[in-house]
Amino acid sequence: MSNNNFQELFVRYAKNPIIITRDLPYQANTVFNAAAARMEGQTILLIRIEDRRGISHLTVARSRDGVSDWQFDLQPTFPPDPEHYPEELWGVEDPRITFMEESGAFYFTYTAYSLDGPLVALAKTKDFKQFERLGAVLLPENKDAALFPQRINGRWAMLHRPVLHSGAHIWIAFSPDLKHWGDHQIVMRARTGGWWDANKIGLSPQPLYTPEGWLILYHGVRVTGGGVIYRLGLALLDLENPARLLRRSQEWIFGPMETYEQHGDVDNVVFPCGWIEQGDEVRLYYGGADTCIAMATAHKNDLLEYLKHCPEK
Ligand code: BMA
């Protein structure tokens, strides 16, 4: 008998991928990396669509059950606006939504692809119909940012991922007003050498509150002779001081295994930008091979239990 029946923490939805380019109401190159939120009994995905020029925009998709019958906005919901925001010259990408309890509004970070490289921009909405831009908040080269849902010791906090001489690591920044960010500190470094998360890591979806700490899912980018592989690991940050890393998985817990994750515009990529909680279940929405959107579920308690057995840091 095979003993090869390891239980995965995240279980793929049987009918993945849940959204492909042909589902869209207009022509495009690909649909992928989507942010996720729940609003008025619906799952909202803010999906990244790359048009046939190569420029990305964001479009809203709504579904009651979060896996089928998606209603798409008929035109790009959040197109780049380089006339007023020059940093959006080559598109807007990879949003991460955080519902801010204090203002009852959804804020989302996104990557603005500027002439000088990708940078972190911020926008706000209450209904996913009208949007207010807060502009560029962090200089290039920086991406993979997401806000925490509440003030921490009086200040807003955001994880982000600048690219530096030593590699690409996850940092934290603080702000009194969501506009001006400072007090930058490294939270988690990319490992080195042969590790799956050597040299380049980045935050995946927004941080999730748990009584035991902020639950973090991050991607590691392994460079191989055959190209790069994007895989995911877990970490836990201190609730009161999220600059403090409590636990970090050694092994990756989710990686490209299915055809729709292994083959596409960019092979071997799983890239989540959003997850939502429904009871104890966490639903993870991720881009597969930069070409489709897929979903996988896990139990929050299983993720925390797994982390308890991971080393401190
Ligand atoms: C990253 C981002 C993601 C993309 C990934 C794999 O740097 O650009 O949007 O999914 O690369 O191509």
What does this entry look like structurally?
- With 313 residues, the chain is mainly β.
- The protein has a single domain, classed as Tachylectin-2, Chain A.
- Helices cover 4% and strands 50% of the residues.
- It is built from two helices and 23 strands.
- The strands form five sheets. Strands 1, 2, 21, 22 and 23 form a five-stranded antiparallel sheet that branches. Strands 11, 12, 13, 14 and 15 form a five-stranded antiparallel sheet that branches. Strands 16, 17, 18, 19 and 20 form a five-stranded antiparallel sheet that branches.
- The longest helix is centred in the C-terminal third of the chain and has 9 residues, at 300-308.
- Bound molecules: beta-D-mannopyranose.
- Residues 33, 93-94, 230, 266, 269, 271, 287, 290 line the site of beta-D-mannopyranose (BMA).
